[in-house]
Model the fold of this input.
Amino acid sequence: MKKIDLRFLGCLLLVSLLGVGFPVFGGGRQQASAPAVNEAAILNPVGQIPIAKEKITMKIGMVRSSQIENFDTNYLTRELEKDSNIHLEFVFYGSSDTEAKQKIELEFAAGGGDLPDILNMAFDAASTQYYGEQGLIIQLDDYVNNKISYSKASIDELGYDPWKYIKSPNGHIYTLFHAQEEYASDISTRLYTNKAWMKETGKGMPTTTDEFVELLRAFKNRKFNTDGTKEYAFIADKGTTLGYRFFNALITPFVYANGTDNYLYKDERGQISAAYASEGWRKALVWIRGMVDEGLIDPLSFTQDAEQLKAIANSTKGYCIGMSTNYPVSWYGANDPRAADWVLLEPLAVPGGKRVGSFSTIRVSSRYAISKNCKYPEAAFRLGDMLMNEKYSMITRYGEEGVDRIPPPPGTKSFYSGYEISSIPTLPWATPNNKRWEQNQPHILTYRMTAGVAAVGRVKGLEEWSNVMAAASLPFKEPEREIGPINYTTGEFENISEIKANIDTYFVECFTRFVIRDMSLENDWDKYIRELKAMGLDTYINTVRTAYARMK
Done:
């Protein structure tokens, strides 16, 4: 639920003042340009390799990645061009989806005459429908219904229908998607804990909120570093997103907290509600506030940025942090052995309650649109279809088969019961390479694929413990609480965009103010709820419920 960029709206206004023929929201529809050639004459039958009988060229708009050495010579690019007979000319739109979106919007506002054939970047639902209705990107309905081939097996393997999360509220499909099923990434209750310190305390994995507090107390009372460096039982940073900013693992014992779903969840009645307006949220804040009062959670966690936290982590040659929500690997330099000495905690429960893990199992995002300028739209669609098949989905995550993924030794087991190991990945993630597109294109990774490379004994450090923790947390998953992606009409999006932005700002601010006692959970909670409602919380929730019901 991204707020429409005010710079884009300003650009539309400027364009209208200049007299350029581009409609504002709600304006008339345009038809996408018809293909300039008879594609049937140059394309092989659906599903056949290569896609085109003769070499054709297409321009593809991309987000540049610092991890990819050269898109032109990249292994995935070379394989894709061989299997498709389509030569790709890359047009780069910045180094992030946000930057790319802003640049593309400017081209849309100017009528889209300079758009490349393919826009391989993320799109939100409301903008996608608007651009499609204006004819700037083409409808894919007929292609989806009749031309899907390379990715059909992977789509069928997903445990849900991905198209309902991609289809616009007007009933049309304008983009392809990426979908990823991976247990180690699904769980959002992430608390990174110093394994060396935990071993020193003699305490095991906490399963309740009381045991968690006792572990932090043991961290606080341990012997100090010999160099006199200050130590922190728990310290994090303010983060840049809601899902990362709030400690989901500390809130979920009291109310289901999933930042991926914007802290909306299905309550005991099955109704979509806001976790941050619930009694469970208030109880969680009381508990977190108590740990701040006791010095177990350092107040800097609510004000400092990631670089400041990194400086603290490196203030000693040893360890000075016991627990964090920040990813510890990012604190240390290459080959620093401290990066491996961490463990992820499993879900907690209040004493006498049940353990619940906050999971994000439905992770589908719109990606890859075909512009009105595309000379070979069906070929472009089939290219995206090919990118979503198992071969290219595995390459974009794990690299070249037989080189970056080697056959498993006999007897190798997956962390997850019921899955066989298919290969052992050897190409580290988040490192410069020239093998993959770093998942920056439509792709489908199913649980079979990702659990099939999660080999016991073959990964170390946090990667190992991510899988250990995820496997241990699976029994506590409650998918009936999860919301998943929601597609809004343009009217719904405009109606709630400002409301949601104001509410997010307010409850983020109040979260911190409550736990550092700048606001009183005893005296100011009712006022906080009234303020949320005055901002339009009921309108927001009712709109979400309406859109969710329509999708279902």
The first helix runs from residue 6 to 18. Confidence is low (pLDDT under 50) at residues 1-34.
